[in-house]
Write a structure and sequence with these properties.
alpha+beta; two-stranded antiparallel sheet; 6 strands
């Protein structure tokens, strides 16, 4: 007898197949009398099972039939489903209910373990996807920061070039060639981030020329829209030299004015110079000679 069972609503629900009475082999030709005896045995065994279970158990039987040579169907097998307490079912099945319950517990445990492993695998997959998205997000952020740095370096480069070009244009003959400093960007390219144009502090041969030169230097130093600290230092130095030149020019103007306000200087001219005349002599010639001597010796005339 082969028995299979299940647990339902707190009760063990085994299914018992009465397999000791096997199906007739179609190849064998049993007599109708033999089929009838088989049927009686199956029915008797069914009744015995019901008697062992007692009134509290439920029994449901499904019969299997074989057609006899007389055209009558004979019961040649049966499947019995029993529902009841574990004690009743064990009494009938010789402890099969407890074994079946243990089997079900094992199956349930296996199912839980499988579900846990499946959940763990799913969590691993989810974590891997999350890590992947996080890594991609970091890469995107890094790429964005890299692009931002490159844009900033390009902006600085344009500003430096314009700054030094303004110095050169205003400096003219007082300016030298521009030199740049470079910074390597995150893209591997070198970008101009600094520069300078040398400006000569050339003083002139006169205060006026020095003043013009320093005004040119000041204009060159202040040419960019945003002069640097060094630019302002150069402009201040040129302003100091220009101030000194103005002071020297002021002194020269004062000296010229003082001479003009002093004792008049008389210069002899051809009109005032009386040359001796061969046709004139006597008092007239003497007076003329004395007049010339008075003028030359700056002696006021009488």
């Amino acid at each position: 007898m082969q028995i299979t069972s299940m647990l339902s609503a707190g009760y063990l629900e085994p299914m018992q197949n009465i397999s000791r009475v096997q199906k007739l082999n179609d190849a064998e030709k049993e007599s109708d009398q033999s089929k009838q005896l088989k049927e009686q045995e199956i029915l008797a065994e069914e009744q015995a099972l019901k008697a062992k279970l007692g009134d509290s158990a439920q029994v449901h039987t499904v019969y299997h039939y074989t057609m006899g040579t007389d055209g009558k169907r004979y019961i040649t097998g049966a499947s019995v489903t029993m529902k009841g307490s574990e004690e009743d079912l064990n009494r009938v099945g010789g402890g099969i209910a407890s074994k079946d319950m243990e089997s079900q517990r094992q199956e349930a445990s296996d199912a839980l373990r499988e579900q846990s492993e499946k959940t763990e695998r799913n969590q691993t997959v989810i974590k891997a996807e999350a890590d992947k998205r996080k890594a991609e997000s970091k890469e995107d952020k890094a790429d964005y920061e890299k692009e931002a740095q490159v844009r900033e370096l390009k902006q600085i480069q344009n500003e430096v070039i314009a700054h030094e070009a303004a110095h050169q244009a205003a400096a003219g003959e007082f300016g030298g060639g521009v030199s740049y400093t470079y910074t390597k960007g995150p893209d591997g390219q070198n970008y101009i981030t600094g520069g300078e144009v040398p400006i000569r502090m050339k003083e002139g041969s006169t205060p006026e020329e020095t003043l013009r030169n320093m005004q040119k230097v000041q204009a060159a130093a202040n040419a960019p829209a945003d002069p640097s600290g060094q630019d302002r230092k150069v402009a201040a130095k040129a302003a100091a030299i220009a101030m000194k030149a103005r002071a020297e020019m002021s002194k020269e103007d004062e000296h010229t004015e003082t001479v003009a306000k002093g004792t008049p200087i008389f210069e002899s001219s051809k009109e005032n110079q009386l040359q001796p005349d061969a046709d004139k002599n006597g008092v007239t010639s003497v007076i003329a000679a004395m007049r010339e001597m008075e003028i030359q010796s700056l002696v006021p005339a009488a």
